[in-house]
């Protein structure tokens, strides 16, 4: 019987994934990554209810190096990073591969809602697709990966968990970044860097001062709520200048851009030839739909993405992910927009 190492978080997705893997004839071993915050007890409880052996490994050093520090640095540059995309290849899936090698397992698995087949990543069900989050996985990680929740919707997974009598059937989904459980990014940045946020000016598109902000890193492109600016029309964050500590706000129409440039590129499918336009669809945020685009690989390894129609609130630091139909071509980090 082939072995598989499953990332077991103590939530409903990984618990149902364990059941499905075992039903498929695999010998399931759980792995929990301990980042120093509460959660290990839930993983132990889930493993016990499933009769799955569980290994707990300390991930704090890897998280610090590959996720927390780059996350803080990106925010201080005025970007909007996605820490889960940083974590997956460098911490979570790396740990799964290491554990698989240690115990002689052929496969690794997670409870992500996407599909992995023949060294490729495909979209999951539209209601809860998470393929965007897997855009930076390495070939070794993709080739060993099983994603048993691929054909399921979240509601179906919860129903199956309830049918199986799993104690996590009604456990709420985690909505926050694992190392910022209270969701307060600004407070985390102040603690992590030891530097308080510096107030500065809100400016309009012409550079006129129209108010005061509480620290530029608190705001992201496209944000409307929480600005505290009195205006006759709705205003949105359209840009940030970290050197001058200003946040630019304007009408929603100022948020739309047709092109972007991305670096730190990872190809899951074969890359196009340099300079050869590649028709595709592209997604610039996790919860945004894909849109028709053309991607061009530049000689320096960066990728230019030109959209068929202007896109709203493209934010530097976020990932842009390219698709060919349902399959992930690759993804990179947005540098700037045009």
Account of the 3D structure:
It is a single chain. By secondary structure, the chain is of the alpha/beta class. The protein is built from seven helices and 17 strands. It has a six-stranded antiparallel barrel. A hairpin with a 2-residue loop joins strand 5 and strand 6. Helix 1 packs across helix 6 and helix 3 runs antiparallel to helix 4. The mean pLDDT is 95.
Please tell me the overall pLDDT.
95
Q: How many E-type strands?
A: 17
Major β-sheet profile: 6 strands, antiparallel, barrel
Distance between the termini: 53 Å
How would you sum up the global shape?
globular
Order of helices and strands: EHEHEHHEEEHEHHEEEEEEEEEE
Adjacency order of strands in the biggest sheet = 12-15-14-13-16-17
- So how many helices? 7
Low-confidence stretches: none
Fraction in helix: 25-40%
Structural class comes to: alpha/beta
Beta content comes to: 25-35%
Roughly how many Å is the radius of gyration?
21 Å
